[in-house]
Fold each of these.
Amino acid sequence: MTAGPLTLISAADLPPARRQALDDETIRTAGQIVRNVQTGGEAALRQHAERLGDLQPGQPLVIGKAELNEALSQIDSETRALMERVAERIRAFANAQLNSLSAFELPIPGGAATQCIDPVERAGCYAPGGRHPLPSSVLMTAITARVAGVKEVWVASPTPPPETLAAAAISRADGLLAVGGAQAIAALAFGAGVPACDVIVGPGNRFVTAAKYLVSDRVGIDMLAGPSELVVLADESADASMIAADLLAQAEHDPDARVILVATSRSAIDAVNEHLAAQLEALPTAPVARQALSNGLAVLAGDMDEAVRVCDDIAPEHLELHVGSPQRIAARVKHFGALFVGPGAAVVLGDYGAGPNHTLPTGGTARQTGGLSVFNFLRVRTSLRIDDTAAAEEMFKDAERLARLEGLEAHARAAAIRRRTADEPPGA
């Protein structure tokens, strides 16, 4: 081991990627709450909200548009301008995503096959409260839903401070459910206090994640996200002080946050550990960051090829490239939630609204999915039109033959009835 917060290991000793895992007790607890709200509605929602400290007796469950706009008008002008600038960057990126999709009509024999793109009708956007309320998550989720064209957007966040209310107003949310945890997800899914939503998105604690899992057979969800993750890939050219600052920025999120340095140089690892120790001394969130760093790793790779393989094996939520040729390495890495190319592209810019969304896959799930986008709120649907059945005869024949190949005679006859001539017997 090397002296310092990060434990030194070789690439061969890298533990298996941590997949998303919900323990049985969390699922059981969340399941009881979800079922209570599903069957008991608003009364059950209020009971759990008051029991868990989201609300005081008599406080409203939902904060409406007028109150959100009032909160926006009362925050200081500098904070409002800050959030509106960030909102515009998020909006611009989401609009570019939306414009990358298009409807089309493809001619086929006898007609056309088409694709249309429509938003869901109603979205629920969860933003954590608790130790660190995250108005940035309101902006990231609700603005993206609005850009996608969602008609109704509801935010849920426990004990929201004025900044969270203001962010909801800037995002043009229809209202804010002042409730958190599994009870908020159940309310958004089944309709308690707010209308039932078609899609629920946003990060949260393990009970939020468990509740999203439990309602995912009823509503669309973005992902089952776990604690924050950062992998930094570095070579001997990297700035150790900057890397330490970025690792600490993720470590302060949560004691369970996962931070990993992958380096081709032992001296780079030692330098980062030295800067981590020094920066921790003056960090107000050091108690949380120290816990996260105690589970952190410094992986010494034999060369850049091995370092890239390690990063792909981890498939982290965030991947920073602090290397001499970042663009060249960016073309080689394949699995990540969000990629930050070069030392100037810090994760903190992704967290706070450079444009791309900060709601990202964790636990190795970046191998099969990406971060939150307008696509989470869209339905790509298809249609088929046949105007000339004679021109489509070959397709009908192929459908008939393939149906019989699979032993589905009614399917075959449904194709045959559209192509046979008047003197052909049924089922020919």
Note: The mean pLDDT is 94.
Amino acid sequence: MKILILSVGSQGDVQPYVALGAGLQAAGHAVSLATSARFGALVASAGLRMAPLQADFMALIDTPEGKRSLAGGNPFSLLKKVEPMLRGMLDECLAHASDTDMLIYHPKVLAGRHIAEAHRIPAIVAHPVPLFSPTRAFASPLIPFDNLGGALNQLSHRLLIWLSFSFFRTMIGQWRSEVLGLVPGWDELSLGGRPLPRIYGCSRHLVAQPADWHDHSFISGSWFYDQAHTWQPPAALEQFLSAGAPPLYIGFGSMAGPDAARITRLIVSALERVGVRAILARGAGGITADQLPPSVYLIDHAPHDWLFRHVAGVVHHGGAGTTAAGLRAGLPTLICPFFGDQVFWGRRVMAYGAGLAPIAQRRLSVDRLATAFDALIHDDTMRRRAAELGALIRAEDGVAQAVRWISRQ
């Protein structure tokens, strides 16, 4: 079967789909991955066919407007810039899907469900976060409340699903009519009169499969694409790691706040107060520093599956991929969320006992960080729970579970 996977965004939005695509290809399917051209080398490393998209959301995030939005500003200020990019992406995805038997897509790629309808082929929504299957078991991961009660939980999912697509409904409706020859109206959760299948690449030990889900929704376990075997660490990093106790890892991935220098000063001051070593990951600009003490090492990038073998705990923004990677390594975790599902993962990690209560970016302080850093190193109960969870996640084999479920669709 020829399968086209569609995903855009940061590396955390793309790498799980590389893992999923590699698993599907190993099962005998011909897999292409349509994503931003900046991830061409990553896609090629898995032996997948690259279908490049011009849409570069990471470049947009790096603008002043993008940084203000991620730091808690008005996210709707970006809509005027995002819409032309999304409109072009719809046409690009359609062109890449001209000879495809099945679509698997990240919901950010708005074209997936509509191309499947026009071509009369099956489609599957795939996401690391359980966002598109309403349930009474927990509230939508996009709101800052874990449990509103059964009926309100379910309502929160439906409301957030509607809101997620409402801003682009006019644009998509016009595209459906003018390009695909389809009627403007549609339901994002159905295709051909049947429920649209939805698969989630997260651990069942953090999010148990809700009892009120039907067969069209499935939690498979996380989709990991390891790169340690192809990556050579710089000598200076190896020297730092061997020069003392295992450090903490601190990085905010694709999140780039408006005052990275201030956040970095808070982090370094807290580390020095409690005498803890650390590796800081520059990421997309959430951390920056010109001068650091010898106990702190700054990196631009290192594969999590390599780096997390060498650290004592992780501090990050709470992206689904980074959260899963840290927990798979059995590491106690502190999540410092910016927005969205990051708060959800922080609560889930804390509830399991594998990490601390999340500290929102706007509430970061030297006192709070110092207390948290000390606990990550010295709280034996939390470290034991994190190690237990790591063993469970390593045994899940989410890609294999996903491939079996997709094949049954």
Note: The two ends are 12 Å apart (CA to CA).
Amino acid sequence: MRNAALRNVLGPHVTQKGSLVEADYFRFDFSHGQALTADEIARVEDEVNAIIRQNAEGLIKETSPEQAIAEGALALFGEKYGESVRVLRLGNALGGDALSADGKPYSVELCGGTHVRRTGDIAVFAILSESGVASGVRRIEAATGAAALAHLKAQAALAKAVAGNLRTPLSELPERVSQLQDERKKLERELAEAKKKLALAGDGAQAAPAGPEDVGGVALLARVLHGVPAWASCAGLSMKAKRASARA
């Protein structure tokens, strides 16, 4: 189902490049040229979970590889097929009728592994991470069943803890975090400006230069400043030098 969901969301160019499947975890590598967006990840999760909720029976039949592919089955990366192959039809096409012998399934793949009897046996599906593993190849790691539920509960608990610390309703947490980020940037700018003004005003430890010094025909006003960002000190001294040069 993951392959079908990725192809539906990202496009038909998606093909499997490798995988690891365990009882409640899997890793899936596939062809795609860029990182998935948060919206694309959410759409893949939503689609797979929609098929899970159908609790549709998985249908398996034996046929030739040529006939299976002609019927729309996807051959999996790295698999070698003989004269007869195992074809898995899983789930109902979204928006379609119930799966039947001649109905349109959600996913049709050539695969020799074992599978759940019904999609509902998977319970729930959650993507844990998405990353690049090679040029043009992406990887998703996901959990199912109890492991997926534990992951979602942990994420919810973390969000609730942050909302509690900020004394903000959970529904308003993203907006509150964005506000705090803006406030921090503003304070950092104000602090840098205050340090610059303090340094340029003099602190009694070092007298401010009376005016710019001519160095090779260039007016230079130099002073040692402590605790001031480079961009702020350079900008401040540059402006002061221009003013002093203009007075001269």
Note: The chain has two domains: 2-165, 187-247.
